[in-house]
Each structure stands twice: as C-alpha cells, then as structure tokens.
Amino acid sequence: MQFWPWALFLLFVGGMLAIDLGVLHRDAHEVSRKEALIWTGFVMSAAIIFNVGVFLFKGTDAGIEWTTGYLIEQALSVDNVFVFLLLFGAFKVPAAYQHRVLFWGVLGALVMRAILIAFAGVLIHSLHFVIYLFGAFLIFTGIRFLREKESHTPDLEHNRLVRFARRFFPVTEGYEGQRLFVKRNGVRFMTPLMLVLILIESTDLVFAVDSIPAIYAVTDDPFIVFTSNIFAILGLRSLYFVLAGYLAGLKYLKPGLAGVLTFVGAKMLLVDVYKIHPLVSLAAIIAILSVAFVASVRARDSEEPAGISGSVDANPA
User: Fold this and answer.
1) What gap in Å lies between CA 148 and CA 254, rounded to an integer?
2) Is there a domain that residue 137 lies in?
3) 313 lies in a domain?
4) Mean pLDDT of 139-152
5) pLDDT score for 64
6) What is the model's pLDDT at position 314?
7) Which tens digit of pLDDT belongs to each residue from 2-44?
8) Number of domains into which the chain is organized
9) pLDDT tens, 109-129?
10) Does residue 312 fall inside a structural domain?
11) Is residue 278 part of a domain?
12) For residue 25, what are the domain limits?
C-alpha cells in the first residue's frame, strides 16, 4: 500500500479545517445561508476534483465506487442535520456559536470514523462472514427507518450521557461565549456548549454504525472508503446551515434513506452469489434518492395551498 496518497489527503483535510476555523470563522458570528452555500460548493467541487483523480489513477470501477460511496454518505449525513436542529433548539444555542461547536464535532467525527473504518475493514478481511452480519444489520436499519416516527426534542434531563458528564463537571447556568470550559474560583465548569458537543459526538457514533457498513457494501478499498466518508463529513457543517430551513418539508426523505440502506444491505448479502456492478449500484442509489426528493417536493407543493408549510426557521435558537 502506498502511503503518499494518504499523507497528501490528510494534509488537504488539515488545511481545510485550518482555513475554516483559523481564517473564515476566527471570530464567532452567525453563518448566513450565502456563506454556507459558498463553502458547500467549495467542498463539493473539491470532492468532484478528487473523484476525477480517482478515475484517472485507480481506474473507472474505482471512480464509480468512490462516487457511489460519497452519495451514500451524503444522503445518510442528512439525518445528522436533523439531530443538529433538535439539539440546538433544545439547548437554545445562539446562532453565533453553532458553527464552532459543529467544527469540533466534525473534528471528533473524523477521528472516530477513521478508527471505525479501520476496525470494520479488518473484520471484513479477516472474518468474511461479518459482511453478512453487516448486510442484515443495514436491512434491519432500513426497516427501522420506515417505521420510525417523526423526531422529537430529546429529553435532556434524563439523557444518560448528559447525566454522566455532569458527575465529573458542574455546568454553568448560561453560555460563556464560545468556550467549552471555564474556571471559577479554581473549579473547572463545563458550559452547555460542551454538553451539546458531547451529544453531537455520541449521535455521530450511532450514525457511523449505519454508514460505514453501507459504504463497505460498495467497495473494500480502505482509501476509497475513508476519503469518500471524510469528504461527506467535511461538508456536513455547511450542509446544516444550507438545509436546516428545508428539511422538514422533505416528507419522503426517511423512506428514501431506508431504500438506500436496504439496497446496499441486500448487495452485501448477495456478494458471494451475484456481484452487482458499481455502475448499477450508482444508478440505483441516484434513482432512489431522486424519487424520494421529487415525491417530497410534489407533496409539499400540494399541501402549501391548504396553509401547511414544510419549512422551519433555519435558526432554531
């Protein structure tokens, strides 16, 4: 395995994060939709250029696998946006501090995803039967998505993770700017912003358990799995600020994601019986997501004349 592509990619990711936090968002401010659209466009353009590089250096099949994996990760990451919306609303996080907590959340997610991807890869290569377990799990998750009712605001007072964190640090009554910890009279306090970060990291762990097996259904190349996953995560912050006001109107989003998970789960279960070509997988996933989006838009348009609006405030705080 060549290490220079990994080194170059990690340098690129580090540079992106440094520019984002150290230059564009050095001072806390409310992220406008225009700003979020520009950053989203930049990350997606970088992903497309990288994908072209995969086509050129690793071949057509690898390039299609990368595209398919990226689309899967982008689609599944939309569920993270719902969670951000709920947590920011429940904790009344000021709009100016939302980007900072998402930055640290994404940074933690990058490390966590790298560990989980490596662990899943070792399992699949050393214990082949694990791929059937992953496939069955994805189909089960798809069915769960179909049966899952609309998300509700989390019960923070009874959340085990929040209660566990409060055992170690007292929590300040309000926000202390964009700081995660403060010291008062020699005692270190945790701010509500740190609680939000802990919950964001814990929910990403749950979503990673779904998304990482899904991408291993497309390819077993660790470089493709890792880079497509990380590109999707890099754009997650700006995706929140772009989509937060529109997601509630996508009525058939959950069924669409359920269809994607069920398809890749079935592909895993059939891996030793019939190998589905990467181009067929890509076409199937694009078709599922397109149908879900078009159906959602049509349903929203038909409901709006009756006085039902599918949008929500992009700033829940």
Assistant:
1) 8
2) yes
3) no
4) 71
5) 93
6) 44
7) 778 888 888 988 888 887 766 665 666 677 778 878 888 888 9
8) 1
9) 888 888 888 888 787 777 777
10) no
11) yes
12) 4-306
Count, residues in the chain: 317
Give the whole-angstrom CA distance, residue 195 versus residue 316. 17
State the pLDDT at residue 156.
57
Q: What is the 3-state secondary structure (H, E, C) of the chain?
A: CCCHHHHHHHHHHHHHHHHHHHHHCCCCCCCCHHHHHHHHHHHHHHHHHHHHHHHHHHCHHHHHHHHHHHHHHHHHHHHHHHHHHHHHHHCCCCHHHHHHHHHHHHHHHHHHHHHHHHHHHHHHHHCCCHHHHHHHHHHHHHHHHHHCCCCCCCCHHHCHHHHHHHHHCCECCCCCCCCCEEEECCEEEECHHHHHHHHHHHHHHHHHHHHHHHHHCCCCCHHHHHHHHHHHHHCHHHHHHHHCCCHHHCCCHHHHHHHHHHHHHHHHHCCCCCCCCHHHHHHHHHHHHHHHHHHHHHHHHHHHHHCCCCCCCCCCC
- Distance (Å, whole) CA 311 – CA 246: 5
Residues of the chain above pLDDT 70, percent: 85
pTM attached to this predicted model: 0.73
Mean pLDDT value across the chain: 79
